[in-house]
Each structure stands twice: as C-alpha cells, then as structure tokens.
Design goal:
The chain is α/β, with parallel strands linked by helices. Helix content is about 20%, strand content about 15%.
Length: about 160
C-alpha cells in the first residue's frame, strides 16, 4: 500500500450540498430557503416564537418547587458493586466508600455522596461507608454478612 492509494471506504463520505449554483442544480436562487420572510434571511433564531400568539410555555402555569439546597446523590446498585468485585476492580475486604467506588470506575463523580440501591444480588461480605441506602439494600448487605455505616441523614 502506498500513500497515493489510501482512500476512504465507499459511501463513508458525502459531497456537501452546494447552494445557490444556478437553476439546474435544484438548489439555486433561493438555495432551498423558499421566498422572502424572516426565515429566508440569515441569523434567525425564533425557537418558541408563535407568531405573536402567547407562547405555550407562557400559557401554562408554573408547577412545583426546585430546592436549590437539595443533596444530589450518585445512585449505585448492589449488582453493579458485585460485578466490580467479580472483575477484581473493588476489594471486598476493604471498606467500600465513595473514593473506592470512584477509583474502581463504578461511579464518575462523588457529588454529595453515594446512595446504594437493592438492584441485583450481593454475594460478597462487604463493609460499606456511604451517604445513604434503601431499606432492601441494607437487608441484602446484612444478609450477605456485610455491614453498612450511613454518613448522612438520607438513610431512607
């Protein structure tokens, strides 16, 4: 193989649409924009504009409340933790906390803490130190012979 023989796979590249190149091209003159009007001009951004009618996002009432002080937990299932233990990424003999889960690649970032949920099965005897856990998760951990220490008030 020589440098002059290198080419893309068949169909991997497509020629760009050349606009405004005469009537015979199929997209000449108005270049596929139709005729006149605001949208035929360049630099138009009118998302949510309904032609002067009151937009739907203003017609509908506001709902709910967004607590800016709420804690945001990273959710991890027991099945995901067991998979990491089986793959030798997590050491079951050591304490499993947010830092250990991050180092093992189970979670990406710690946020306000880790909350364990009961999805999947846990076979290993593991000692957890996490921000929160669901009741079924706590039962499954204790049934497997492990212990769990909750660091925050978000136990339920």
């Amino acid at each position: 193989m020589k440098l002059n023989e290198i080419k893309d796979n068949e169909g991997s590249t497509k020629n760009r649409k050349r606009l405004g190149r005469g009537i015979g091209s199929g997209s000449g003159k108005t270049a596929g924009r139709g005729v006149k009007g605001q949208k035929a001009r360049s630099g138009v951004a009118i998302n949510g504009f309904e032609g002067g009618q009151m937009p739907i996002y203003r017609r509908l009432p506001k709902r709910g409340f967004n607590n800016i002080f709420a804690s945001e937990f990273v959710v991890v299932s027991l099945g995901r933790i067991q998979t990491a233990i089986d793959a030798k990424k997590l050491d079951a003999s050591k304490t499993v906390d947010a830092a250990a889960l991050k180092a093992a690649g189970v979670i990406r970032r710690e946020k306000d803490g880790v909350r364990v949920l009961a999805d999947g099965e846990l076979k290993a005897k593991v000692k957890f130190e996490v921000a929160g856990a669901s009741k079924p998760a706590i039962e499954k951990i204790e049934k497997a012979g492990g212990t769990i220490k909750l660091l925050s008030a978000a136990a339920e």
